[in-house]
Amino acid sequence: MIWIDEQKLKELREMAPEYLRVPVVERAVAFDVETPNGKSERMCSIGITVIENNIVTKSVEYRINPEQDFDWFCVKVHGITQEEAELEPIFPEVWPQIRAELDTGLVLAHNARFDLNVLRKCLYAYGIDFHDVHFADTVEIARSLLGKKVPNHKLGTLCDWMGIPLDAHHAGSDSFGCAEIYLNLLEEYGSLDRFERTFSFR
After folding, report:
1. How open is the CA angle 145-180-200, to the nearest 5 degrees?
2. How far is residue 54's CA from residue 59's CA, in Å, rounded to a whole number?
3. Radius of gyration of the chain from its Cα atoms, rounded to whole angstroms
4. Half-sphere exposure of 180 (CA within 13 A, CB side)
5. Which sign does the torsion angle of CA 87, 38, 68, 43 carry?
6. Per-domain residue ranges for the chain?
7. Above 90 in pLDDT, residue 146?
8. pLDDT digits (tens, 9 = 90+) for 12-23
């Protein structure tokens, strides 16, 4: 996707036929988590990518001490060792920064219920409350809109097909890939509101 300034983008939208106009997403936040083990109830990293007015404005990754043992398989996938993680802050210390991003806007994730459930279990483990969020799952969107145009709907496959750079299983890069997939599908197919759902952390 080619980024242009907001005024020019507005002019192009106004010139385009109604069916070709790209809806403006004021704020959406894509996130991705990596877990220390197969329990999937804590995170050792979280990536967050912010979209404002259809433009990625921020992409960050936080490392977290999950206070749990690591499985060798998970370490092989994401490359974060237990020794490295133990030097990082625990979840409640990082939560204020995470919450500041997730507090408003549409939440995005690839296979969203996995990431949302990990976050819910982290919040529960530390006795932290959080409000319901509106979310959209880029797996569901891609599966519905692209179908068999792509071999499968994995994050890596879609990023490769769309020409999006990806360092797989690094939470920051994965969240950026998710955000870019959403923007590409938004540009190609128009409003994606019908894919929005509500997730409760209670």
Report:
1. 75
2. 14
3. 17
4. 22
5. positive
6. 25-199
7. yes
8. 556 655 555 678
Tokens describing residue 67: 């206070």
DSSP string, 36-67: SSTT-SS-SEEEEEEEETTEEEEEEEEE-B-S
CATH homologous superfamily of 25-199: Ribonuclease H-like superfamily/Ribonuclease H (3.30.420.10)
Beta bridge partners of 52: 27, 55
User: Quick one: how far is CA 8 from the chain centroid?
Assistant: 27
Task: Count CB atoms within 10 A of the CB of residue 62.
Answer: 20
Cα separations in angstroms, 158 against 138, 173, 185: 10, 14, 11
In three-state secondary structure terms, 199 is: strand
Per-residue pLDDT reduced to its tens digit, 73-131: 999 999 999 999 999 999 999 999 999 999 999 999 999 999 999 999 999 999 999 99
